[in-house]
Write a structure and sequence with these properties.
The protein is built from 14 helices and 18 strands. It has 430 residues and is α/β, with parallel strands linked by helices. Strands 7, 10, 11, 12, 13, 14, 15, 16, 17 and 18 form a ten-stranded mixed β-sheet that branches.
């Protein structure tokens, strides 16, 4: 078996290192890293070395660091890899992906791929290139998300998305994240540029990319979608979370706000435009997606998610909050006149191969689906699975057209949503 040789270019986000969280027999152990010396490179090295040093199932990566001037050109000239992983500054990401794919390299790049609509020409170039380029979409690798998709794609249980009621969206998806959090058991240190929306992206392009991808999965499945035919943008808005200097210092290790973000500092507090809501229709199905950021992660919580998918047979709910002890609950609420229990029982029995140990019980909403807690190792484990999916595509030698189309659609929609909201003032949350 030929081993793939992976190169990391300026890994400024911890998602880059998480792709190496587990041993991968399809990758050569020598990992070449082209990165500017400093806190970002140090954080990447520390995280990878912690994977090597752990007692249970240690990895055996050998890091080779390269620095100096003209790093991108040097990386291309050295030829140490056949695929590149990108996770860091987002404002130059699409241009970098275009350069790499033109040079004959495959690219796995963290989201979001753009921060402004002016970068869209590179999107067209990347998604028509002969080399594979894929964004790091971890949600599909969660057992919970796979179960949700299974429900939606089982017509006898879920029915079809309700489209006749314009008052409430058929897909209502939301999440809450935290600026100060822990990753791999350690406090996360963010680069200072993370708080510069011109570099990181604002609340309409970051977490929203995951949400669009999920809506595409539920509505389109593996069909090839088209932006002009299938998507109608209805509304978009963005608002801020205050980041006092002490929180900025704690999350970045920097003593002061850098000059590049001073224009967003008011009365001594950074107003970070990291929250967003987008409303649109996808093949006639109404979608509302809302991403919010709070300051600190409360002990024992982590990221919080909610979801409501309205089908003609039942409505699927995800609840996660104080009322559930911050555990995710998946419930099915029957539509009026629908006897759901025999349908749920038949489906759960049929799905045991894909979801061993799946069970169901009554709940206040109808029926609760229960996945065994050991069936999924958590969000941080999903990055290595994304890398495996990428390698699967690579070894088949195909660029799946449905994947190309989904990438084009989601980033075009996010760019349009950002343009829609730009003429409005940054809003307060409602």
């Amino acid at each position: 078996m030929t081993l793939h040789r992976v190169v990391f270019y300026e890994p400024g986000h911890f998602h880059a290192a998480l792709t190496l969280r587990t041993t991968n027999p399809r990758l050569a152990p020598d990992i070449h890293v082209y990165a500017t010396p400093g806190p970002e490179r140090d954080a990447f090295v520390r995280l990878v070395e912690s994977f090597n040093a752990r007692i249970e199932h240690p990895t055996h990566w050998s890091l080779h660091l390269h620095d100096g001037s003209h790093l991108l050109q040097r990386m291309l000239q050295d030829g140490h890899g056949d695929l590149v992983v990108l996770a860091g500054r987002n404002n130059t990401k699409l241009e970098t992906i275009a350069t790499l794919t033109q040079a004959g390299l495959h690219v796995l790049a963290d989201k979001p791929w753009l921060t402004h609509s002016s970068q869209l020409p590179y999107l067209s170039q990347v998604t028509t290139a002969p080399r594979l380029a894929m964004d790091i979409m971890t949600v599909r690798h969660s057992m919970q998300a796979q179960l949700i998709a299974q429900v939606v794609h089982t017509p006898e249980l879920f029915g079809e998305f309700v489209t006749r009621d314009d008052q409430e969206p058929s897909i209502d998806i939301g999440s809450v994240h935290h600026l100060v959090k822990r990753v791999n058991g350690q406090p996360l240190q963010r680069p200072a540029w993370y708080y510069d929306t011109s570099v990181q992206g604002d609340g309409l392009v970051d977490i929203q990319s995951h949400m669009v991808e999920q809506a595409q999965w539920w509505v389109l499945g593996e069909e090839v979608g088209d932006m002009e035919r299938d998507v109608v943008l209805e509304n978009a808005r963005c608002w801020t979370t205050p980041v006092p200097l002490d929180l900025f210092q704690e999350s970045t290790g920097q003593r002061t706000y850098p000059e590049d973000i001073r224009s967003s500092v008011h009365d001594g507090v950074l107003q970070y435009a990291c929250n967003g809501e987008i409303r649109y229709r996808l093949r006639g199905v109404s979608v509302r997606q809302k991403a919010e950021w709070r300051q600190r992660e409360p002990t024992g919580t982590g990221d919080l998610h909610r979801l409501r998918l309205r089908g003609s047979q039942c409505t699927l709910h995800i609840r996660q909050g104080e009322e559930t002890g911050y555990r995710v609950e998946i419930s099915l609420e029957p539509a009026a006149g629908v006897k759901l229990e025999p349908l749920v029982g038949t489906a759960v029995e049929k799905w045991q191969t894909s979801f061993p140990g799946l069970s169901y019980e009554t709940s206040s909403l109808g029926w609760r689906l229960r996945l065994p807690p050991n069936l999924d190792q958590g969000h941080e484990s999903h990055f290595a699975r994304v890398l495996n999916t990428f390698l699967d595509h690579l070894e088949r030698g195909t660029w799946p057209e449905a994947l190309r189309a989904r990438i084009r659609m989601r980033y075009t929609l996010l760019a349009q949503a950002q343009e829609f909201a730009q003429d409005q003032h940054v809003e307060a949350p409602s």
